């Protein structure tokens, strides 16, 4: 399929991409809004049938079921190779979002252990709770809506950090009174359902044979070492330690990246949301994790600027306030590498253990995650390091006795093909060449 | 209501649900074993990122259960390894 090029192709129809497309369209640009999913909305708007929050004016621009697996730069624009054919555009806005970040612990591969976002997706998108006695664990404010949505089915929330850290950032909180109200509302909801909320506590092991039936939780001391442990029965775990931006496409395009305050690799955007590569914009969690509201604001700025207009000053102010809050959030919910036991699986796909990762460094002399990947295969499996990339980078850096660098994370995030494709998809590309 | 079969058992689903969500609602937690350890796996990320939920639908292996919308009459079965053992020599 080759049609006349769009002015602007927006990749990802989540909060950021929808806002970008609406802003660009509102200024007269011809927009193509692509998403791999069958429905727009991203990770935030999961309307089940009958509730469609997508503005009618945008619906004709949406190309659902278009997973973009490669973006090629040409003299006068870009060619987007998708699972449903090629799309050409003069300008590209990458708004591919993020997915749950994980820190491995013994038993995390047991059926019944889900990502926090996955649990939310099952409930909001499909009406299915992941269990009847769910342990919600990890770190960050996202655990609260997950627990509030599962209501009486939650056994307890185990937050590795503590929201009291926000007290160190009074200005950032004062600029975002809505966030405070939201947090208080969720805590009240937990209280109403008698869900215990534990801080400085983490799930350190999950137990079961063919499905999870219990977890061990531990209080963490100041150095995040587990002290007093106890076992809790459950039939599901929803766990997440923040989010990892989905960077395949920015990396394919050669966009600059940096290490953000939460330790994630993010693509670098300037004040108009432009990437370092001409013609490429970035919006939403690809350029830093900060919640749906920030994604919408960044999308609106990117869409307006890409369409040749000057974004409203109020949007820039809003972005500054929301980013200040995100920085305070990242500082409050710091994520450590953790020290999982040697036989803990790190790479779920290739079933690589912590021991094998450490041995690649200590015994075999690897000095970075890419070297470890070649020796021990973490990140070589089906998910291509999406799930284990962060943890592998942390373990390798720790074994090398140095902090994690952007280069470590980049080494495990670069994927020449961004989405699963069939041989037929690839053959189409060859024919056109 | 949508009806499909999973490893020979009849399962019902709500229209629009994914195969993974319908199996979860029916009480299943795993429908795949890993290539190396033979360990059971089912849903993990729920959004197509982790590839843990691979399943065979109407004879096609390697589909992500969390992304594949279930249709009436689908024949779903659990998957071992890469689901292509019949191709091994
Ligand atoms: C599983 C999950 C559930 C979440 N649930 C909530 C929630 O309930 N409430 C909340 O406040 N926050 C939630 N979040 C946090 C959420 O990520 C952000 O708040 C918000 O959705 C970010 O918006 P975004 O537009 O930047 O990205 P997203 O909403 O992630 O949108 C990105 C879009 O890009 C598409 N995409 C990605 N790669 C490609 C590609 N190669 N080709 C084509 N399309 C692509 C994806 O399908 C997706 O629709 C959740 C996060 C996750 C991972
Ligand atoms: S549950 Fe992760 S890909 Fe389906």
From TrEMBL, chain A:
**PANTHER family cross-referenced by the UniProt entry:** ANAEROBIC GLYCEROL-3-PHOSPHATE DEHYDROGENASE SUBUNIT B
Keyword list (alphabetical) reads: Oxidoreductase
Q: Where is the FAD/NAD(P)-binding domain?
A: 7-299
Asked whether the UniProt record includes NADP among its keywords, one would answer no
Q: Could you tell me what this protein is called?
A: Thioredoxin reductase
Per UniProt, residues of the BFD-like [2Fe-2S]-binding domain are 345-396
Task: List the top taxonomic levels of the source.
Answer: Bacteria, Bacillati, Actinomycetota, Actinomycetes, Pseudonocardiales
Listed GO MF terms:
oxidoreductase activity
State whether keyword Transmembrane helix applies.
no
Q: Which InterPro entries match?
A: BFD-like_2Fe2S-bd_dom, BFD-like_2Fe2S-bd_dom_sf, FAD/NAD-bd_sf, FAD/NAD-binding_dom, Metab_Enz_Cyan_OpOx_G3PDH, Opine_Oxase_asu/HCN_bsu
From TrEMBL, chain B:
Could you name the domain of life of the organism this protein comes from?
Bacteria
Q: Does the keyword Cell wall biogenesis/degradation apply?
A: no
A Pfam family of this chain? Fer2_4
Tell me yes or no: is Oxidoreductase among this UniProt entry's keywords.
yes
- UniProt KW keywords: Oxidoreductase
- Which molecular function terms from Gene Ontology are attached? iron-sulfur cluster binding; oxidoreductase activity
Q: Which InterPro entries match?
A: 2Fe-2S-bd_N, 2Fe-2S_ferredoxin-like_sf
Protein name stated in the entry: Putative molibdopterin-dependent oxidoreductase YjgC
Species annotation: Actinophytocola algeriensis
């Amino acid at each position: 399929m080759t049609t006349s090029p769009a002015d602007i192709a927006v990749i990802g129809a989540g909060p950021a991409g929808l806002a970008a497309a609406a802003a660009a369209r509102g200024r007269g640009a011809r927009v193509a809004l692509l998403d791999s999913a069958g429905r727009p909305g991203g990770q935030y708007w999961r309307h089940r049938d009958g509730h469609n929050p997508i503005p009618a004016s945008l619906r004709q621009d949406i190309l659902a079921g278009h997973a973009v697996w490669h973006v090629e730069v040409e003299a006068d624009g870009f060619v987007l190779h998708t699972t449903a054919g090629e799309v050409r555009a003069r300008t590209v806005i990458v708004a591919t979002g993020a997915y749950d970040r994980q820190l491995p612990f013994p038993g995390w591969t047991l059926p019944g252990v889900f990502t926090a976002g996955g649990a939310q997706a099952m409930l909001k998108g499909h009406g299915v709770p992941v269990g009847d006695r769910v342990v919600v664990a990890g770190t960050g404010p996202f655990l609260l809506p997950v627990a509030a949505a599962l209501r009486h089915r939650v056994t307890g929330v185990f937050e590795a950090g503590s929201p009291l850290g926000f007290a160190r950032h009074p200005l950032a909180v004062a600029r975002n009174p809505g966030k405070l109200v939201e947090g208080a509302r969720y805590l009240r909801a937990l209280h109403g359902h008698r869900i215990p909320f534990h801080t400085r506590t983490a799930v350190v092991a999950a137990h079961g044979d063919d499905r999870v039936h219990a977890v061990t939780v531990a209080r963490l001391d100041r150095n995040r070492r587990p002290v007093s442990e106890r076992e809790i029965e459950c039939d599901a775990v929803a766990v997440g330690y923040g989010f990892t931006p989905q960077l395949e496409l920015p990396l394919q395009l050669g966009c600059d990246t940096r290490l953000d305050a939460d330790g994630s690799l993010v693509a670098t955007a300037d004040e108009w949301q432009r990437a370092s590569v001409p013609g490429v914009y970035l919006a939403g969690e690809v350029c830093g994790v900060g919640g749906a509201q920030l994604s919408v604001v960044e999308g609106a700025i990117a869409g307006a600027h890409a369409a040749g207009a000057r974004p409203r000053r109020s949007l820039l102010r809003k972005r500054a306030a929301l980013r200040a809050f995100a920085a305070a959030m990242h500082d409050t919910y710091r994520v450590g590498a953790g020290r999982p036991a040697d036989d803990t699986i790190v790479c779920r796909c290739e079933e690589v253990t912590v021991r094998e990762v450490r041995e690649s460094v200590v015994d075999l002399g690897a000095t970075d995650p890419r070297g470890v990947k070649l020796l021990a295969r973490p990140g070589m499996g089906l998910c291509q390091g999406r799930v284990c990339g962060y943890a592998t980078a942390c373990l390798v850096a720790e074994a090398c006795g140095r902090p994690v660098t952007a280069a470590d994370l980049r080494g495990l995030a670069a994927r020449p093909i961004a989405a699963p494709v069939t041989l037929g998809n690839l053959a189409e590309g060859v024919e056109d060449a | 209501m949508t009806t499909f079969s999973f490893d020979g058992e009849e399962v019902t689903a709500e229209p629009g649900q994914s195969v993974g969500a319908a199996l979860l609602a029916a009480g299943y937690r795993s429908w795949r074993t890993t290539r190396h350890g033979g360990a059971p796996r089912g849903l993990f990320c729920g959004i197509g990122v982790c590839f843990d939920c691979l399943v065979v639908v109407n004879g096609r292996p390697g589909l992500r259960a969390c992304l594949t919308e279930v249709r009436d009459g689908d024949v779903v079965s659990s998957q071992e390894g890469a689901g292509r053992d019949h191709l091994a020599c």
